[in-house]
Protein backbone atom coordinates (compact mmCIF):
# COMPACT_ATOMS: atom_id res chain seq x y z
CA UNK A 1 0.00 0.00 0.00
CA UNK A 2 1.35 3.44 -0.98
CA UNK A 3 1.89 5.83 1.93
CA UNK A 4 3.29 8.79 -0.05
CA UNK A 5 1.15 9.79 -3.01
CA UNK A 6 1.68 12.75 -5.34
CA UNK A 7 -1.16 13.64 -7.70
CA UNK A 8 -0.86 16.17 -10.54
CA UNK A 9 1.71 18.34 -8.75
CA UNK A 10 2.38 21.64 -10.51
CA UNK A 11 4.81 24.33 -9.37
CA UNK A 12 5.12 27.75 -10.96
CA UNK A 13 7.60 30.49 -10.09
CA UNK A 14 6.15 33.57 -11.75
CA UNK A 15 6.20 32.73 -15.46
CA UNK A 16 8.39 29.65 -15.02
CA UNK A 17 6.67 26.27 -14.93
CA UNK A 18 8.97 24.13 -12.76
CA UNK A 19 6.72 21.04 -12.49
CA UNK A 20 3.74 19.99 -14.58
CA UNK A 21 1.23 17.33 -13.46
CA UNK A 22 3.73 15.04 -11.71
CA UNK A 23 2.11 11.95 -10.18
CA UNK A 24 3.70 8.93 -8.50
CA UNK A 25 3.65 7.01 -5.22
CA UNK A 26 6.00 5.39 -2.72
CA UNK A 27 5.22 2.31 -0.63
CA UNK A 28 6.61 0.90 2.62
CA UNK A 29 10.08 -0.64 2.33
CA UNK A 30 10.47 0.52 -1.27
CA UNK A 31 13.31 2.44 -2.91
CA UNK A 32 12.17 4.72 -5.74
CA UNK A 33 14.70 6.61 -7.83
CA UNK A 34 13.91 10.08 -9.12
CA UNK A 35 16.18 10.84 -12.06
CA UNK A 36 16.54 13.32 -14.89
CA UNK A 37 18.91 15.91 -16.35
CA UNK A 38 20.00 18.94 -14.33
CA UNK A 39 17.11 21.36 -13.93
CA UNK A 40 14.49 18.63 -14.45
CA UNK A 41 12.68 19.48 -11.20
CA UNK A 42 13.88 16.66 -8.95
CA UNK A 43 14.85 18.77 -5.93
CA UNK A 44 11.70 20.84 -6.46
CA UNK A 45 9.72 17.64 -5.85
CA UNK A 46 11.61 17.15 -2.57
CA UNK A 47 10.90 20.73 -1.57
CA UNK A 48 7.17 20.31 -2.25
CA UNK A 49 6.99 17.09 -0.22
CA UNK A 50 8.88 18.57 2.75
CA UNK A 51 7.01 21.88 2.84
CA UNK A 52 9.80 24.15 1.58
CA UNK A 53 7.69 24.99 -1.50
CA UNK A 54 3.92 25.07 -1.83
CA UNK A 55 2.52 23.38 -4.93
CA UNK A 56 0.64 25.70 -7.28
CA UNK A 57 -1.85 22.89 -7.81
CA UNK A 58 -2.20 19.18 -7.16
CA UNK A 59 -2.01 17.29 -3.88
CA UNK A 60 0.49 15.30 -1.86
CA UNK A 61 -0.76 12.91 0.81
CA UNK A 62 1.06 10.82 3.40
CA UNK A 63 -0.67 7.92 5.17
CA UNK A 64 -3.90 9.29 3.77
CA UNK A 65 -3.37 12.79 5.19
CA UNK A 66 -2.81 15.84 3.03
CA UNK A 67 0.69 17.30 3.46
CA UNK A 68 0.48 19.94 0.74
CA UNK A 69 0.91 23.30 2.45
CA UNK A 70 2.31 21.99 5.74
CA UNK A 71 5.44 23.53 7.25
CA UNK A 72 8.72 21.55 7.18
CA UNK A 73 8.63 20.75 10.94
CA UNK A 74 5.07 19.41 10.56
CA UNK A 75 6.12 17.15 7.69
CA UNK A 76 9.08 15.88 9.74
CA UNK A 77 6.80 15.12 12.69
CA UNK A 78 4.68 12.95 10.38
CA UNK A 79 7.72 10.79 9.63
CA UNK A 80 9.33 12.26 6.49
CA UNK A 81 13.02 13.15 6.79
CA UNK A 82 15.46 14.32 4.13
CA UNK A 83 19.07 14.98 3.25
CA UNK A 84 20.33 17.74 0.98
CA UNK A 85 22.23 17.95 -2.29
CA UNK A 86 24.76 20.23 -0.58
CA UNK A 87 25.81 18.97 2.84
CA UNK A 88 24.02 20.88 5.61
CA UNK A 89 25.50 19.58 8.81
CA UNK A 90 26.14 21.62 11.94
CA UNK A 91 29.84 21.77 11.19
CA UNK A 92 31.00 22.84 14.66
CA UNK A 93 29.01 20.15 16.45
CA UNK A 94 30.04 16.53 16.92
CA UNK A 95 28.52 13.72 14.90
CA UNK A 96 26.51 12.65 17.96
CA UNK A 97 25.25 16.18 18.57
CA UNK A 98 24.14 16.46 14.95
CA UNK A 99 22.00 13.36 15.38
CA UNK A 100 20.68 14.50 18.74
CA UNK A 101 19.37 17.69 17.13
CA UNK A 102 17.25 15.54 14.79
CA UNK A 103 16.07 13.32 17.64
CA UNK A 104 14.82 16.39 19.50
CA UNK A 105 11.99 16.53 16.94
CA UNK A 106 10.57 13.63 18.99
CA UNK A 107 11.15 15.33 22.34
CA UNK A 108 8.17 15.68 24.68
CA UNK A 109 9.87 17.64 27.47
CA UNK A 110 8.71 21.24 27.76
CA UNK A 111 10.74 24.34 28.57
CA UNK A 112 10.12 24.11 32.33
CA UNK A 113 11.24 20.48 32.48
CA UNK A 114 14.40 21.31 30.56
CA UNK A 115 15.24 24.22 32.86
CA UNK A 116 14.61 22.26 36.05
CA UNK A 117 16.32 19.11 34.73
CA UNK A 118 13.44 16.98 35.94
CA UNK A 119 13.88 13.17 36.15
CA UNK A 120 11.67 12.71 33.07
CA UNK A 121 13.81 15.20 31.15
CA UNK A 122 16.99 13.35 32.12
CA UNK A 123 15.47 10.03 31.01
CA UNK A 124 14.44 11.55 27.72
CA UNK A 125 17.88 13.05 27.17
CA UNK A 126 19.44 9.61 27.63
CA UNK A 127 16.90 8.12 25.23
CA UNK A 128 17.86 10.77 22.67
CA UNK A 129 21.54 9.94 23.10
CA UNK A 130 20.86 6.23 22.71
CA UNK A 131 18.78 6.68 19.54
CA UNK A 132 21.45 8.99 18.11
CA UNK A 133 24.25 6.52 18.89
CA UNK A 134 22.23 3.77 17.22
CA UNK A 135 21.79 5.86 14.07
CA UNK A 136 25.54 6.48 13.91
CA UNK A 137 26.31 2.79 14.43
CA UNK A 138 23.84 1.89 11.69
CA UNK A 139 25.69 4.11 9.22
CA UNK A 140 29.11 2.83 10.30
CA UNK A 141 30.03 6.00 12.17
CA UNK A 142 29.97 4.77 15.75
CA UNK A 143 33.69 5.35 16.22
CA UNK A 144 33.33 8.94 15.04
CA UNK A 145 30.50 10.05 17.34
CA UNK A 146 32.69 12.54 19.23
CA UNK A 147 34.37 13.94 16.11
CA UNK A 148 33.41 17.46 15.04
CA UNK A 149 31.49 17.21 11.76
CA UNK A 150 33.83 19.62 9.95
CA UNK A 151 36.78 17.28 10.65
CA UNK A 152 35.13 14.20 9.10
CA UNK A 153 36.13 13.06 5.60
CA UNK A 154 33.66 14.05 2.89
CA UNK A 155 32.25 10.53 2.51
CA UNK A 156 31.66 10.30 6.27
CA UNK A 157 29.85 13.65 6.21
CA UNK A 158 27.51 12.24 3.55
CA UNK A 159 26.82 9.24 5.76
CA UNK A 160 26.33 11.49 8.79
CA UNK A 161 23.57 13.36 6.96
CA UNK A 162 21.74 10.06 6.49
CA UNK A 163 22.38 9.10 10.13
CA UNK A 164 20.90 12.41 11.23
CA UNK A 165 17.80 11.76 9.11
CA UNK A 166 17.50 8.28 10.62
CA UNK A 167 17.77 9.73 14.13
CA UNK A 168 14.47 11.54 13.62
CA UNK A 169 12.79 8.08 13.52
CA UNK A 170 11.27 8.52 10.05
CA UNK A 171 9.04 6.21 8.06
CA UNK A 172 10.26 7.78 4.81
CA UNK A 173 13.63 9.29 3.88
CA UNK A 174 14.26 11.54 0.89
CA UNK A 175 17.91 11.29 -0.19
CA UNK A 176 19.10 14.11 -2.46
CA UNK A 177 22.14 12.86 -4.42
CA UNK A 178 23.60 10.80 -1.54
CA UNK A 179 26.41 9.40 -3.73
CA UNK A 180 27.56 12.80 -5.07
CA UNK A 181 31.34 13.10 -4.75
CA UNK A 182 31.84 9.54 -3.51
CA UNK A 183 34.37 7.17 -5.05
CA UNK A 184 33.15 3.80 -6.44
CA UNK A 185 33.98 1.95 -3.22
CA UNK A 186 32.09 4.47 -1.09
CA UNK A 187 29.13 4.32 -3.50
CA UNK A 188 28.94 0.54 -3.14
CA UNK A 189 28.99 0.83 0.66
CA UNK A 190 26.26 3.45 0.46
CA UNK A 191 24.07 1.14 -1.66
CA UNK A 192 24.44 -1.55 0.99
CA UNK A 193 23.48 0.88 3.76
CA UNK A 194 20.39 2.07 1.88
CA UNK A 195 19.35 -1.56 1.42
CA UNK A 196 19.57 -2.04 5.18
CA UNK A 197 17.42 1.07 5.71
CA UNK A 198 14.57 -0.58 3.81
CA UNK A 199 14.98 -3.67 5.99
CA UNK A 200 13.74 -1.44 8.82
CA UNK A 201 10.50 -0.83 6.90
CA UNK A 202 11.58 2.69 5.93
CA UNK A 203 10.91 3.65 2.35
CA UNK A 204 13.34 5.76 0.35
CA UNK A 205 12.85 8.32 -2.41
CA UNK A 206 16.24 9.06 -3.92
CA UNK A 207 17.52 11.64 -6.38
CA UNK A 208 20.76 10.38 -7.87
CA UNK A 209 22.88 10.85 -11.01
CA UNK A 210 25.05 7.75 -10.49
CA UNK A 211 23.19 5.25 -12.65
CA UNK A 212 25.04 2.28 -11.13
CA UNK A 213 23.60 3.23 -7.76
CA UNK A 214 20.13 3.88 -9.18
CA UNK A 215 19.91 0.69 -11.22
CA UNK A 216 21.50 -1.36 -8.48
CA UNK A 217 19.14 -0.52 -5.64
CA UNK A 218 15.88 1.04 -6.86
CA UNK A 219 12.68 -1.00 -7.12
CA UNK A 220 11.12 1.58 -9.42
CA UNK A 221 12.31 4.71 -11.20
CA UNK A 222 10.55 7.97 -12.06
CA UNK A 223 12.09 10.13 -14.79
CA UNK A 224 11.62 13.90 -15.09
CA UNK A 225 12.64 16.20 -17.94
CA UNK A 226 11.98 19.96 -17.83
CA UNK A 227 9.48 19.46 -15.01
CA UNK A 228 7.46 16.80 -16.83
CA UNK A 229 7.36 13.12 -15.92
CA UNK A 230 8.39 11.31 -19.11
CA UNK A 231 8.60 7.74 -17.77
CA UNK A 232 8.19 5.53 -14.71
CA UNK A 233 8.69 1.82 -14.26
CA UNK A 234 11.14 -0.93 -13.35
CA UNK A 235 14.88 -0.28 -13.81
CA UNK A 236 15.12 -2.53 -16.88
CA UNK A 237 12.16 -0.73 -18.47
CA UNK A 238 13.73 2.67 -17.86
CA UNK A 239 17.10 1.60 -19.25
CA UNK A 240 15.52 0.77 -22.60
CA UNK A 241 13.03 3.63 -22.79
CA UNK A 242 13.79 5.78 -25.88
CA UNK A 243 12.43 8.96 -24.24
CA UNK A 244 14.77 8.50 -21.29
CA UNK A 245 17.75 7.82 -23.55
CA UNK A 246 17.00 10.97 -25.56
CA UNK A 247 16.59 13.11 -22.42
CA UNK A 248 20.00 12.06 -21.14
CA UNK A 249 22.01 11.64 -24.32
CA UNK A 250 20.25 13.63 -27.02
CA UNK A 251 18.59 11.99 -30.00
Core attributes:
six-stranded mixed beta sheet; Rossmann fold; 10 helices; 251 residues; alpha/beta; four-stranded antiparallel beta sheet; 2 domains; 39% helix
Care to describe what's here?
The protein has two domains: 1-79 and 170-188 and 198-251, Rossmann fold; 88-169, Rossmann fold (3-Layer(aba) Sandwich), CATH 3.40.50. It is built from ten helices and ten strands. It has helices at 42-49, 72-77, 95-103, 111-116, 119-138, 154-167, 184-199, 211-217, 235-239, 242-249; strands at 2-13, 16-27, 31-35, 57-62, 65-66, 80-82, 172-176, 203-207, 220-225, 228-233. The protein has a six-stranded mixed sheet, with helices on both faces. A four-stranded antiparallel sheet has the order 2-1-4-5, covered by helices on one side. Helix 3 (95-103) crosses helix 5 (119-138) and helix 3 runs parallel beside helix 6 (154-167). The longest helix is centred in the middle third of the chain and has 20 residues, at 119-138. One of its GO terms (biological process) is L-alanine transport.
Biggest sheet: strand arrangement: 6-7-8-3-9-10
Major sheet, described briefly?
6 strands, mixed
CATH architecture of the largest domain: 3-Layer(aba) Sandwich
Question: Into how many domains do the coordinates divide?
Answer: 2
H/E topology pattern: EEEHEEHEHHHHEHEHEEHH
CA-to-CA gap between the ends?
Answer: 37 Å
Give the CATH level 1 class of the largest domain: Alpha Beta
Strand coverage percent: 15-25%
Number of strands: 10
Please identify which CATH superfamily of the largest domain we are dealing with: P-loop containing nucleotide triphosphate hydrolases
State the helicity in percent bands.
25-40%
| pLDDT averaged residue by residue | 90
State Rg: 19 Å
